[in-house]
Specification:
The chain has helices at about 45-60, 135-150, and strands at about 10-15, 15-25, 70-75, 90-100, 105-110, 115-130, 155-160. By secondary structure, the chain is an alpha+beta fold. It has a single domain, classed as Roll (Thiol Ester Dehydrase, Chain A), CATH 3.10.129. A 7-stranded mixed beta sheet has the order 3-6-5-4-2-1-7. Strand 5 and strand 6 (about 115-130) form a beta hairpin. The model has no long low-confidence stretch (mean pLDDT about 90).
C-alpha cells in the first residue's frame, strides 16, 4: 500500500522551496483504528506528508535524469501543537537548508487554518536507484508529479526545469 499524503502543490521554486496541502478526509484508512469515535490523524503520517513534500522538492531540484531518491533519515525535535481531524486542510511548506550530492535537509512547517501545527528539520540521504528504477516506476512518478503540479501556473514555478 502506498500513502500519497500531498494532494496539491501550490508553489515550487526548485532548489529553494515548495508549498502544498493535504486535505484530511474521514475516508482515510487510518481513521478506522486511530481512534474509533474520535478520529485523529497520526503524527507519524503528518511527518510523512511533510517528508513527501520536502523529498519531492529535493528530487525536483536535481539534474534531469538523476535517479536519486530522497530517503528520510533524521526528524529533529518535533512537537505537535494540536490535533488534526477529518475536514482539516494541512498547509505545508518546505525550504532547502542544505543540498549536497549525497544528502539534503529541509526546514518544514505545517499549519491548519493559519495556526501552526508543527515545524521541524528533516534530513534526507540521497540514494542512487538507477539500477532498480524501471520504466513503470518512472512513468508512475512522472504522472504523480504532473498531477500535483497540474494547475500550477508558470508564475508559481521557479528555478530550472
Amino acid at each position: 500500500m502506498r500513502f500519497y499524503l500531498v494532494d496539491k502543490i501550490t508553489e515550487l521554486d526548485r532548489g529553494s522551496s515548495i508549498k502544498g496541502f493535504k486535505n484530511v478526509s474521514m475516508t482515510e484508512p487510518f481513521f478506522t483504528y486511530h481512534f474509533p469515535r474520535h478520529p485523529v490523524m497520526p503524527g507519524v503520517l503528518i511527518i510523512e506528508a511533510l517528508a513527501q513534500l520536502a523529498g519531492l522538492l529535493i528530487e525536483l531540484s536535481g539534474a534531469q535524469g538523476d535517479y536519486r531518491k530522497a530517503i528520510l533519515s533524521i526528524v529533529d525535535k518535533t512537537k505537535f501543537r494540536h490535533l488534526v481531524r477529518p475536514g482539516d486542510r494541512i498547509d505545508m511548506e518546505a525550504r532547502v537548508e542544505n543540498l549536497a550530492p549525497n544528502g539534503a535537509s529541509c526546514r518544514v512547517r505545517a499549519t491548519v487554518e493559519g495556526k501552526e501545527l508543527t515545524e521541524t528539520l528533516l534530513t534526507f540521504s540521497l540514494q542512487d536507484v538507477s539500477d532498480r528504477y524501471d520504466t513503470f516506476l518512472e512513468g508512475e512518478r512522472k504522472a504523480l508529479v504532473e498531477t500535483l503540479l497540474r494547475d500550477l501556473g508558470p508564475d508559481k514555478v521557479k528555478g530550472p526545469a
